[in-house]
Amino acid sequence: MTNSMTRTARLIFTLTLLGTSTLLGHSALAQSPLFQPLYEVLSHPRCMNCHTITDFPRQGDERRRHDQLVVRGADNHGAPTLQCSACHQDNNVADGAVPGAPHWGLAPLSMGWEGLSASQLCQVLKDKSKNGDRSLADLLKHMSEDDLVLWAWTPGGNRTTPPLSQPAFVEAVQAWVNAGGPC
Amino acid sequence: MFTIRVNGIAHTVDVSEDKPLLWVLRENLKLTGSKYGCGQALCGACTVHIDGQPTRSCVMPISAVGDKQVRTIEDIGNEHIGGLVQATWQELNVPQCGYCQSGQIMAATALLKDNSSPSDQDIDKALSGNICRCGTYPRIRKAIHKIATEQL
Ligand code: FES
Ligand code: FES
């Protein structure tokens, strides 16, 4: 009796695990393994908090609405007289409390990634009508050289960084671009 | 050594490159109208104009100022709109303790220079980073509307 119960319990446990991983597989895994590492970086809060689909940025790993209720503004750099640069300088402040990097601001709404699956994000990333008319080579350049992108790996304070190191990320982007940007 | 232009006058100060502009203004130049509230760009008490844009001087290192024009509360009354804002602030008795008010005036002046008839929403967006512990927000809003409707 006890034995068969244990067996049943184990079976249920295994099935649950399988079910969960199938679900996760649909929602979080990219179709192309080459895009998967990019997705893991791009969906990190250091990137996503300013690639929002809202008219405001977010902050923190919990991705709460940005303090002071600052807004996106017409040019993605805040309200006309409360610009992102009112607080965010070209560098993090000395104690790391306020992050900073050149041209601090939100990505345009067309580059908002919130709520997208990996393959959707991949498509949006490559779509020239949404990505600022960037070719795959331009994307590689942006993601490996742009000051604001690079900030994600030196965010100051106790902010977390994306799951891949910056050189590993550049390698992954390069491999994805070399393969023609498979989604 | 850094030379910065504050209220139209060049000042040379011998300070380390990461000294925040706020402390250069207050300690070195004795311009104490800009207040220290949080030191972390959270409250707006230290707001000055950098080339006309409200900026939190507590998080701007002196090395980032370069040849940009710094304008502080001490000089804002010499601008037409800055003068109107200060006069109306007095007329409506906007301040309570006053600690946040130089920042509020700098933010309101920049708003009215950019937008001569701001809506409540425009005011919220422009001043949401200027915190008033005394809760003078309704009077700030009223004063901005009064200037916009009667004088601009
Ligand atoms: S003292 Fe600068 S924002 Fe509070
Ligand atoms: S008047 Fe006291 S903090 Fe604003």
From TrEMBL, chain A:
Signal peptide: 1-30
Recorded superkingdom: Bacteria
InterPro entries noted in UniProt: Multihaem_cyt_sf
Keyword vocabulary terms for this entry: Signal
Protein name from the UniProt record: Isoquinoline 1-oxidoreductase subunit
Organism in which the protein naturally occurs: Zhongshania marina
From TrEMBL, chain B:
CDD domains per UniProt: fer2
PROSITE patterns in the record: 2FE2S_FER_1 (PS00197), 2FE2S_FER_2 (PS51085)
Domain 2Fe-2S ferredoxin-type: 1-76
Any single Pfam family the record assigns to this protein: Fer2
Gene Ontology MF, one: metal ion binding
SUPFAM superfamilies the record matches: 2Fe-2S ferredoxin-like (SSF54292), CO dehydrogenase ISP C-domain like (SSF47741)
Keywords: 2Fe-2S, Iron, Iron-sulfur, Metal-binding, Oxidoreductase
UniProt cross-references to PANTHER family, sorted A to Z: BLR6218 PROTEIN, OXIDOREDUCTASE WITH IRON-SULFUR SUBUNIT
Protein name: (2Fe-2S)-binding protein
